Amino acid sequence: MSSPIESSWFIKGMVKATTDMWLKGWDERNGGNVSLRLQTEDIAPFRHLLQEDRLVAIGETISGLAGQSFLVTGSGRYFRNVQLDPEENLGLIEICADGESAQVLWGLRGNGVPTSELSAHLKSHRARQQVTHGASRVIMHCHATNLIALSYALDLSSAALTRALWEMSTECLVVFPDGVGVLPWMVPGTSFIGEATAEAMLKHPLVLWPFHGIFGSGASLDETFGLIDTAEKAAEVLVKVLSMGGKKHSITTQQLRDLAARFHVDPMAEALATEKWIS
User: Fold this and answer.
1) Which helix (H) or strand (E) holds 105?
2) Is the pLDDT of residue 207 over 90?
3) What is the greatest pairwise CA distance in the chain?
4) Does the pLDDT of residue 61 top 80, yes or no?
5) DSSP for 188-203?
6) What is the pLDDT of residues 37-48, one digit of tens each?
7) Catalytic residues
8) Pairing of strands 101-107, 90-95
């Protein structure tokens, strides 16, 4: 029997997001992870259902998030199963004062633990809260097929990847004017990749892990999903363009400037200045 908390907007939202991501083909097996920061008022109606009887280690000390609550996907859990059993595959956690551990308040049944990328999520949450003045609430990681494919074909720089995606769909510059950060390949699940991702997220709402996947951030699950979906659609178009022999025509730099002026966005200067995005 499901718990009343499963009727909350945040559990329903996470179920929808993880199911949609799996249906997109972005989260095979236990690939991908999502975290949603919750406010006190979100949890208040369900506080009587929560327990504080199990701590999980974060793996390192992360300051500045004490007392914050997050709904997270579980380590080793399959996104296709979240809709079948949210309580087993999701967990509601609260960051402890020491910044080294989190209290499991609900979910992760059977002694489950949060995603192995929890450190990267929390550091990225901290970074995005800083640059969005607290508006950002979601960190989403998935294995978006075409974005991964492009990491083998394009120059691995933020400016090159951003410019390439901007040229593939008119909406891209408007949806992510701050561009896509690109990291060097790094071992996942480590403090090093978490730090690098968070540093990139001080500038970009999207960060590519080459040969692996994409991190996205936003104010809501829908916004973050839509951000990744837009970038992935542009990547799909580019994969098709490259398979047809490359571009013969494209959106020009001046047209990108005109687009930015029309929609009142300030596009990433390095990407605007980059016209060659493949060697």
Assistant:
1) strand 101-107
2) yes
3) 62
4) yes
5) TTSHHHHHHHHHHHTT
6) 999 999 999 999
7) 117
8) antiparallel
